[in-house]
Write a structure and sequence with these properties.
- The protein is about 65% helix and about 0% strand.
- It is an all-alpha fold.
- The chain has one domain.
- Helix 11 (about 175-190) runs antiparallel to helix 12, helix 13 packs antiparallel against helix 14 (about 230-255) and helix 15 (about 275-280) packs antiparallel against helix 16 (about 285-315).
């Protein structure tokens, strides 16, 4: 018994015998609990050091003052738009850079407003609460999928502690909620509960539209299996409610919400990776090299690896659901706009779908090397942590 305990001491040891041992260990040793707990502790420290819960929504004076065309003042960050919509949906437009684009991500602001019972002072906390629950649910679902493939649940931390999860929750952004729902949609698709999967994806789209890239992977899987009727129903359920919402946004704001970003966004590129090379062409080679330190390990290499695996699977005709999830989430990275690639937090948020697809693909194929590599995505949260440390030091 002692020898078995020693063999199973590593969280990455995953066998039926070790699973039985691990189930008897303390409840705290579950990634789905560790991730929201770590996030809560971190955000409480941020509020304490910066002196206000509004630090969680990162307000900028340009938008808080309604001076959208001004050239002075602070920019803040995207969590402020979630906060403004949650605070007063009817009057939020004058505080938003691109109203239709921001309003299309309506799910998190509405949930935050409901949980705050209309009390504006509670909004930063209610938005955080929604995301903490989403972090727990999303990490739990990823754990479940990993264990279904006979892989250690601890690889879920590579996603759960990364910037699109922990970092986004700290910044009051919609990614934790959106990708928790998307993971639910993936899990239901794995169980061949396609219609319920579509319901989860349409909810995910109302949190953040980029989750539809993962939905496209599920749709392609259904088409590959020649499940024509299910593919049609999946597409209709996933897209019609979101499409109707886009029509409503166009009627109110004069444009649809779907686009390549907020203010100063550039269009999606046509030439693969042109968004990266424009950092050099429209900036300087030294800046291009500096961005490469971020983009190469966290974006470019996973994209190239993913597309290479997809090509191999199609060549061998061993195409599964994770192959097609990898195809859509890696394929879109070739055409991501320059405005997203030039903004480190923006691109590291955008890769959430690619992270999840890579982890699931590696788990299915028992590729331990890639699973270990995926844990390095947790380092992306350092971009937020370092900024918070700097802000805390400045406050002192």
């Amino acid at each position: 018994m002692e020898r078995r305990e020693a063999v199973c001491a590593s969280p990455l040891t995953h066998t039926p015998e070790c699973d039985a041992v691990n189930r008897t260990r303390p409840f705290i040793r579950r990634p789905w609990l560790i991730v929201p707990l770590a996030t809560l502790i971190y955000t409480l420290i941020v509020v304490s050091t910066q002196g206000s819960p509004l630090a969680l929504v990162t307000l900028g004076t340009r938008f808080s003052d309604g001076d959208l065309q001004g050239e002075t003042g602070t920019e803040g960050y995207d969590g402020q738009f979630v906060y403004y919509i949650a605070r007063d949906p009817g009057d939020a437009e004058r505080f938003l850079d691109v109203p239709a684009y921001r309003f299309q991500r309506i799910l998190l602001p509405i949930l935050g407003r409901v949980l705050a019972f209309g009390q504006n002072d509670l909004l930063p906390w209610s938005l955080l609460l929604v995301n903490l629950v989403a972090l727990a649910a999303g990490t739990y679902t990823l754990e479940h999928l990993l264990e279904q493939y006979g892989t250690s649940r601890w690889y879920a931390l590579g996603y759960g502690l990364s910037l699109p999860a922990l970092g986004a929750a700290r910044l009051s952004l919609p990614e934790p909620l959106a990708y928790a729902l998307a993971l639910g949609g993936v899990a239901l698709a794995f169980e061949k509960r396609v219609l319920w999967s579509a319901v989860f994806f349409v909810l995910a789209a109302f949190a953040k539209e980029t989750t539809l890239i993962m939905a496209a992977g599920i749709g392609l899987w259904l088409l590959w299996r020649r499940q024509w009727l299910q593919a049609l129903l999946f597409a209709l359920i996933s897209l019609i409610p979101f499409g109707l919402w886009q029509i409503a946004l166009a009627q109110r704001f004069g444009s649809v919400g779907v686009g390549s970003g907020g203010a100063m966004a550039t269009p999606f590129e046509i030439i693969p990776f042109a968004g990266i090379f424009r950092i050099w062409f429209e900036g300087s080679f030294s800046v291009f090299l500096a961005f490469g330190l971020i983009l190469l390990p966290f974006v470019v290499l996973p994209t190239v690896w993913g597309l290479a695996r997809v090509a191999r699977d199609f060549t061998l005709r061993r195409v599964g659901i994770t192959t097609l999830l990898l195809l859509t989430t890696a394929g879109i990275m070739l055409f991501v706009p320059f405005s997203t690639y030039r903004e480190p937090l923006g691109i590291l948020r955008f890769i959430a779908g690619l992270q999840l697809a890579a982890i699931l693909y590696a788990a299915q194929h028992r590729d331990r090397r890639i699973l270990m590599y995926s844990t390095f995505w947790a380092l992306t949260s350092l971009f937020v942590i370092v900024a918070d440390i700097a802000a805390g030091v400045k406050a002192i």
